[in-house]
């Protein structure tokens, strides 16, 4: 029986801890930042703050002590928000060991550096822990509640190390949680992160009553744009036609919090998140997405640029939250 550390006890981290724990093949340490989350799990075996109603197996131990969470771990799954990943790994670095395998389950891009989460992990561990980590990235169409409830789910684990991707696939899969392996970390990570940009734009379309035609057009052309951007950064186009791209785009709907935010339902909560409120990842990602085309010469030369990202960024952070702004976004000359 191996020991797995899950770092981050939000909805997605808790769901992954449930998946890994329900097989009975692993001991699981779940690290929680919030005291109320730790107490809720210890007392009631439920994360009442982020994932109410989903029972956490007894084999999952929760702790607020990072050293305790990492003790004896063979696989470390990072599920912290993208804007906290660097700080959390800087704290973790003193207890990380070369034999550990790292899985990034965070869907995001670091806003200031434009690094993917696997790149942040590699930088921090290499610099502060003194070894080159073996890292895989995991992404796909995964609503946390459905995963925790055991609904059949498929996603992709990618690594430049085929043996690592195969290990992640073997150790984390179960009959309701199918992991496919890939060697394309760039495609899997960018597909996972940039879908959130399109989700907010689709939510704005819905909130303005532009209808299903507009939303379908935006999601489809948005996926084409994500593919061009990812390929310009070194990804394989077929990856974006799979679970990390097309699959993720398919989850843009009523249950997607980025889409809800786009509709304006959570605009105030996004600016003033209270305890336990889940904030939209897409805002930070659309800033990073737009800046990819400005900072990376290869991306800037790719066909049509990134019109949806740049225009959506102006709509979200500027003053064009109206049908004219969205029609301009949909009416951009995307070419093929």
CATH superfamily of the largest domain: NAD(P)-binding Rossmann-like Domain
Calculate the terminal CA-CA distance, rounded to whole Å: 51 Å
* CATH architecture descriptor of the largest domain: 3-Layer(aba) Sandwich
Radius of gyration: 19 Å
Work out the strand percent.
Answer: 5-15%
Largest sheet: 8 strands, mixed
> What is the 3D shape?
globular
Low-confidence stretches: 265-271, 293-305, 312-319
**Topology, number of strands:** 10
By DSSP (H or I, 4+ residues per run), the number of helices equals 17
Overall mean pLDDT stands at: 84
Helix content: 40-55%
**Spatial ordering of strands, largest sheet:** 5-2-1-6-7-8-9-10
Q: Report the CATH topology name of the largest domain.
A: Rossmann fold
As an assembly, this protein is single chain
Domain count, please report it.
2
Topology as a string of helices (H) and strands (E): EHEHEEEHEHEHEHEHEHHHHHHHHHH
Instruction: Supply the helix-strand structural class.
Output: alpha/beta
Look at the structure and give the CATH class of the largest domain.
Answer: Alpha Beta
